[in-house]
């Protein structure tokens, strides 16, 4: 399995950013890490190994990006600064990572995928920029970071503004009225996966219902147990990516 390490100084984030690429061709997948995880963790957790056959035959090419969650959502900065830093991370993906992928891979498709907080990143960026993506897969994710749940706090400490609103998929999809954007989202293949005992289950159902109300086709799967661990993600990526 072809593996390549890349690192460059991001002008957007003003820091060095790293990523790993697995595979030589196929449908390109931006794979977002879990909360506080790094670009190499999916490899360490054998999630990449679970896709070995697909990668080796050139069905998919996986781009494991790094995160800056500890500088945004999980930082000690003021809430307004947290969402602004997240916006810079999104810009890094849009202006640096995607152009890098386009130079590496001529396949016109593009998948956004992730697990846990990475699933949030995947779904949020795909729904905000639907013309760039052909498929999105969110696994074990929360799509409204402003809600408080057992063991999971409101990541903005009660603070709320329009920027936060437009980065919470459950919220902005439920109120989406722009028919042009709805048509664009409908063109994507959308897959949401969550465990029946996961704290994020109801939030996933809420997002699925919001999509249904807009008649946006999507696949929604509820797995047994919590299904919020690498051993489950190893199974999920084999099925959904």
UniProtKB/TrEMBL annotation:
Pfam families: Esterase (PF00756)
Domain of life: Bacteria
PANTHER family: ENTEROCHELIN ESTERASE-RELATED, IRON(III) ENTEROBACTIN ESTERASE
Protein name: Esterase/lipase superfamily enzyme
Organism annotation: Dyadobacter koreensis
């Amino acid at each position: 399995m072809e593996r390549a390490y890349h690192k460059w100084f991001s002008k957007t984030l003003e820091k060095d950013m790293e990523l790993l690429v697995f595979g030589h061709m196929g449908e390109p997948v931006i794979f977002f890490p879990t909360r506080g995880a790094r670009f190499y963790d999916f490899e360490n957790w054998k999630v990449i190994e679970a896709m070995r056959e697909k990668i080796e035959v050139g069905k998919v090419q996986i781009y494991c990006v790094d995160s800056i969650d500890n500088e945004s959502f999980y930082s000690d900065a003021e809430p307004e600064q947290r969402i602004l830093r997240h916006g810079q991370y999104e810009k890094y993906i849009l202006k640096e990572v995607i152009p890098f992928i386009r130079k590496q891979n001529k396949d016109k498709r593009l998948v956004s995928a992730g697990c846990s907080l990475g699933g949030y990143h995947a779904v949020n960026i795909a729904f905000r920029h639907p013309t760039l993506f052909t498929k999105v897969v969110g696994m074990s994710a929360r799509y409204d970071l402003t809600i408080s749940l057992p063991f999971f706090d409101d990541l903005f400490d009660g603070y709320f503004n329009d920027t936060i609103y437009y980065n919470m998929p459950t919220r902005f999809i439920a109120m989406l009225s722009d028919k042009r954007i709805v048509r664009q989202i409908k063109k994507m293949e959308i897959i949401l996966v969550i465990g029946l005992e996961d704290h994020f289950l109801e939030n996933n159902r809420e997002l699925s219902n919001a999509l249904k109300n807009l008649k946006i086709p999507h696949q929604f799967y509820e797995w047994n147990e919590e299904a919020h661990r690498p051993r489950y993600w190893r199974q999920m990526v084999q099925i959904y990516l």
